[in-house]
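SAMPLE LOG
Freezer: B-3
Tube label: C17
Construct: single chain, 93 aa
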Amino acid sequence: MSSRRKLKKSIIATIELLYTDCLFYKIFVVDADKEAADKVITRIVEVQNDLLKRVNVNEGKEVKGRVKSYYKKLRVDIQEQTNSIAKEIASLG
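STRUCTURE (predicted):
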């Protein structure tokens, strides 16, 4: 398992890319739906805060396999959330 610091940096980097894509859409696309873009940006911030909070929580240190399964589930959730947000950004344009 990689360190929590690396996992946090990975989350932040991925979320920054999504945020940048949405911001470029909002600024550079003519007749862009700015309200929908604002909603996506709000969701991006909420997802980032939730994921970073979950990285800090250690669930059941005393049970050996529990921590590993917790972080495995967290990685799956990160992938699902980023894919979902990317689809929302793609549907804006």
